[in-house]
Amino acid sequence: MSYALVKMIHVGSIILSYLLFLTRGIWMMRNSAKLQQRWVKILPHVTDTVLLASAIFLAVALQQDPLSNSWLSAKVVGLLLYIYLGMVAMRFGKTRKTKIIAWIAAQCVFAYIVLVALTKSPTMSLF
Asked: CB atoms < 10 A from the CB of 16, how many?
């Protein structure tokens, strides 16, 4: 598979994964029954698997090592924090307030990960 195709799959899965998380968060805040639909419980896992697989493929293809590249290390740590906050927001938060705060914090971490990816800098110096 070509690098360009895998990168397109990776970026597409990032967008879809984020939009699903955003939508599920809005539904969570509205106490929507849509969160209980089967596809809502399955599709994020499929999307995130494609996202992770494409990320690993790209890292191997470019010979990028997260231990040697601080920006890639920052993305991995950010991803772990994003996953944790997402789990609190969607599943493990004890109160509605906790879930909403975790969901908002996850949005901030997602923005950080995207900026690190675009700038290739863990400090995101855009200027």
From this structure: 17
